[in-house]
Amino acid sequence: MFMIAGRNVIRLVNKSGLCYDEDRDMGSGLCGLKGRNGDEMKSRQIDSELKKDHVSERRKIKILLVGSADSGKSTIVKQMRLIHSAGFNETEAIDAIFVIRKNIVDAFHAIAVGVEQTNIDIPEGEKPVLEQFSHHSHEIETMDENSERQLLNDFLKLESVKLFLAKNTTWPTIPDNYAYRLTLPLKQQE
Q1: pTM for the structure as a whole
Q2: Which InterPro entries does the record cross-reference, listed alphabetically (predicted)?
């Protein structure tokens, strides 16, 4: 180690090129690195950034959600997003409403197909509504909300549907969460 003196500053330089300034009036501090084209300085900056990144990564928690379809994996992610961030913007909320409506229609489609596949007698008056769900459910998704609600409520009142659901509580193509939907009547928006 050697010293370079000038003005009121003493500069201490070690073999690796590190130098320390000691200002007799102001204290001491690191004056910089002496190396080829600043390579050592860049290396130390990169190392410092990597340390900072490592510390911030240690604070993050990573979760692997495993489960079958309709087991609630995406629901957990959405709930965490609502709890820990700003929530959803208007576009995402509209998209969520569309997905919920589609899921309801898909569940009712599966029920209608199930009614037709079993030996349940379908009264003539119920056939048009049942066929709307079993063969034309894609058209229901394009209806205005009030017409769709009315059709969904009419479907739930069908005797063949009630009988099918009573006999087949675990029909393979019906989602597990359909029972929750059946407990909530669809109301008209005011």
Answers
A1: 0.53
A2: Gprotein_alpha_su, P-loop_NTPase
On the 0-12 / 13-18 / 19+ scale of CB atoms within 10 A, 111 is buried
pLDDT digits (tens, 9 = 90+) for 141-183: 788 888 888 888 888 888 888 888 888 766 766 666 666 555 5
Task: For residue 73, give the amino acid letter.
Answer: K
Residue type, 96: A
- For 75-92, write each residue's pLDDT tens digit: 888 888 777 777 778 888
Cβ pair 108, 133 in contact under 8 A: yes
Q: Which two tokens stand for residue 114?
A: 């199930």
CA angle 110, 111, 116 (to 5 degrees): 100
- Is the distance from CB of 105 to CB of 150 less than 8 angstroms? no
CA pair distance 89, 94, nearest whole angstrom: 9
Reduced to 3 states, what is the DSSP secondary structure of residue 3? strand
The 10s digit of each residue's pLDDT in 52-61 is: 888 888 888 7
Integer angstrom CA distances of residue 135 from 30, 56, 108, 113: 78, 54, 11, 8
74 is in an annotated binding site: yes
CA gap 34, 188 in Å, rounded: 76
